[in-house]
Design brief:
With 502 residues, the chain is mainly α. It folds into 2 domains: 28-222 and 271-492, MFS general substrate transporter like domains (Growth Hormone, Chain: A), CATH 1.20.1250; 224-270, GTP Cyclohydrolase I, Chain A, domain 1, CATH 1.10.286. It contains 21 helices and 3 strands. It has helices at residues 28-41, 43-53, 59-65, 70-98, 100-119, 124-151, 158-187, 200-206, 209-219, 226-231, 235-245, 250-270, 282-296, 299-312, 317-341, 347-370, 385-401, 404-412, 421-449, 451-472, 481-492; strands at 274-277, 373-375, 378-380. It has a two-stranded antiparallel ribbon. Helix 4 packs antiparallel against helix 5 and helix 14 (299-312) runs antiparallel to helix 15. It is globular, with a radius of gyration of 22 Å.
Amino acid sequence: MTNAAGDPAGGSEAGGVVDGGPPSAPPKHVTGRVIGLAAAGAVGGFLFGFDSSVINGAVDAIQQEFALSSVVTGFAVASALLGCALGAELAGRLADRFGRIPVMVIGAILFLISSIGSGLAFSVVDLIVWRVIGGVGIGIASVVAPAYIAEISPRLMRGRLASLQQLAIVFGIFAALLSDALFANAAGGAAEPFWLGLEAWRWMFIACVVPSVVYGVLALTLPESPRYLVKVGKEDQARTVLARIQPGEEDRAVRDIHASMEQDELGKKKGALRGPVFGLQGIVWIGILLSVFQQFVGINVIFYYSTTLWQAVGFDESDSFTISVITSITNIAVTFIAIALVDRVGRRPLLLIGSAGMAVSLGTMAFAFANSVEVDGAVTLPGAWAPIALVAANLFVVFFGFSWGPLVWVLLGEIFPNRFRARALGLAAAAQWIANFLITVTFPWLADLSLFFTYGMYASFAVLSFLFVFWKVPETNGMSLEESEVVFARKGSAKRPAVQSG
C-alpha cells in the first residue's frame, strides 16, 4: 500500500496544514465527516476482534467434540493466527493493486466463509482450515483498516482516529464473548444442542455472518483512498474525495501524493528495508519489537482462554462466561480512556505506565496461581486467591487497554518513512500475528505445566517492554508524520543520519 497508515497528503495533512507551519483545526463539518469515515473503516477491527475471540467460549466443547489433546487444542485455537500473518503480509500488495475498498470487501467475504465453515466443521482438520481462512481476513483488516483511517486523518486528530481501530477491536471482542455467553446459557452449555440440532459452540461461529455482511456492505459505501486514486491515474476522483476531507487543499494534497509516490519508487529501487541490524534497518526492528511485546505479555490468553481458565480454577461454566464478558466491558472502557489521553498525555508516558501496571498485575496472577491446589483431580484456587487472581486479571486488561493495545497501532502508523511505510507496517503486523500465534498455541501445555511459570513469564516480558520503551521509543505526540519519522530514525540507528521524507 502506498504510504499505508500515512498522512493523507504526504507532507501536507488534512485540515489545512502548511508544511513547516502549525496545524490548523479542520472545520466542524469536515471533522464530523472524517470521524464518520474513520468509524466506518474501523468496522474491520470489529470483525477482527469478534472472529479472533469467538473461539473463547468454544474451546472446551471443541476439545470434547473431537477428543483433542492440549497441544492440538492450542493449535486449533491459534490456527487462525497463521492466516492472520499471511493476510497482513498480503494486504498491502492487494490494496495497491485493487484499492482499499475492494480489499475490505475481500476480507468481509473471507470472514463470512470462515464463520459458516467453522460452525459446520465435521473434524478438527477442516475446523483449522476454516479458521485459517478467517485469519487471512483478520490479517487483511488489521492492515487495511488502520491504513485507510490514517490516510484520511487530520494531524491533530490522528492519534484518536487511529485508536478507533482498537476501539472497534475491543467492541468485537465484547460482542463475541457476549454472544458466546448467550448461546451457552440458552442451550444449557456450549456443548449442548441448540437451533436446528447444532451445538451451541457451532452457533458461536455462525453468528459472525451478521457482522461480516454489515462490514462488506458498509465498505462499499466508503470513498476510495485518494492515494490509490492518484496512483491509478484517477486524479479527478481523488480531488473529489480530498474536497470532502481536506477542503481547499486539494492541489497541495495531490502534489504531495505525487512526491510521496516518487519517494516510494526510489525506496523500492534502493531496497529501503535492508539495513545493518540483522539485515533490516533499526527503525523496522523497533516496529517489530513493539508488535512482539504487545503480544508476549499474554493479553490474548485472557481473550482466547479466559472461560476455560476460570472454569479450571473453580468457577462454573456460567460464571466463567459472565466473567469473560465483564472483562471485555472493562477493555472497552479503558480504550475510551486511551482515546481521550493519547493526544494529550502522549504515547510514551502511557506505554511506560501500562508496562509497569501489567508487570505488577501479571506478577500478582503468577503468585496467586502458585498457591493453587488440586481438589478431586481439578485445579482450584483456595480462599481469597480466586478473587485476587480475578482482580489482577482485570487490572492487567486495564493497563493493557489504555496503553499497549491502541498505542502500538498508532505508533506503527507514525514511525516509518514514507518510502517504505507499507512494507514495514506489513512486516510489523505479520510479526505481531506470529507472536500472537506462539503465545496462543503454547498456553494450554504451559498451563498444564505451571500457571505460576506461565504468568511469571508474561510478567517478565512486561518488564522488558518497559525497558524497551524507556530506551528506544521517543515521544511523537503533536508531531507531523515526517517529524515522527526523524526522531524514530535517530533511535533506530546511531550510525545512519536521520531519515528524511516528504
